[in-house]
Specification:
The chain has 184 residues and is an alpha+beta fold. The protein has a single domain, classed as 3-Layer(aba) Sandwich (Aminopeptidase). It has a seven-stranded mixed beta sheet, with helices on both faces. The longest helix has 17 residues. It binds coenzyme A. Coenzyme A binds next to helix 2, strand 4, helix 4 and helix 5.
Length: 184
């Protein structure tokens, strides 16, 4: 079963390792791979800053990834969605599909956000496919928007509104419960 849980002390080292995995870091727009000190500061922010909320994605209770929402203190009641499945063995097995339904429930039902949006590199087929499948809509295309390893990369903007999730959530949850990916 796929679940989300709060971040714990012991996740700091695991997250540092995952952020350095080539299959994760290649899709992140951060300037460089962080030093251990920068990672520690980021981890503290993740736990303490009210502008940001993060959850570990777990599969049968084992941590496999991270999902964060940032920009929560904005008066717009919107947040930016960032995520990765850090455990290579867990990718491509429905973890992302399930985690995003659980994350959208947290965003819209618990945090009462109005909008969730996401910046995805234009060649990140896996993320674009799984986010489109749950109902994120394409809202824009930004050419050469980020520099990755010094090279300009295009970015796709995706978004979902609270009312769209209200219409989609029952169906999305049912598909995942039938597939025994999430609890009913
Ligand atoms: C994007 C990501 C979170 C998706 O999670 P996942 O657990 O691998 O995804 P799922 O197993 O739920 O698969 C979702 C869909 O994407 C498809 N998919 C998976 N890898 C793919 C790839 N490399 N290319 C194209 N489609 C792919 C799957 O076939 C599946 O489609 P289906 O349901 O029609 O079979 C994960 O692959 C990941 O962490 N990637 C690296 C970091 C990253 O890109 N983060 C997002 C930054 S915006």
């Amino acid at each position: 079963m796929i679940e989300l849980r709060d971040i714990a002390d012991e996740d700091e080292e695991r997250l540092y390792r995952w952020r350095g995995e080539p299959e994760v870091s290649r899709w992140m727009s951060d300037a460089d791979f962080p030093s251990e000190l920068d990672h520690r500061r980021w981890f503290q922010t993740l736990r303490d800053d009210p502008d940001m909320h993060g959850w570990m994605i777990t599969r049968d209770d084992a941590p496999v990834g991270l999902l964060t929402l940032t920009g929560l203190s904005s008066h717009h009641r919107r947040a930016a969605w960032n995520w990765f499945v850090g455990d290579a063995d867990a990718r491509g097995r429905g973890v992302g599909r399930a985690a995003q339904v659980l994350g959208l429930e947290r965003a819209f039902c618990d945090l009462k956000l109005h909008k969730v949006w996401s910046e995805v590199m234009a060649d990140n087929d896996a993320a674009l496919k799984v986010q489109a499948a749950v109902g994120f809509r394409r809202e824009g295309y930004l050419r050469g928007h980020v520099l990755k390893d010094g090279q300009p990369r295009d970015v796709v903007l995706l978004g979902m509104l609270a009312e769209e999730w209200s219409a989609l959530r029952e169906g999305a949850r049912q598909t995942l419960t039938e597939a025994r990916l999430i609890h009913a």
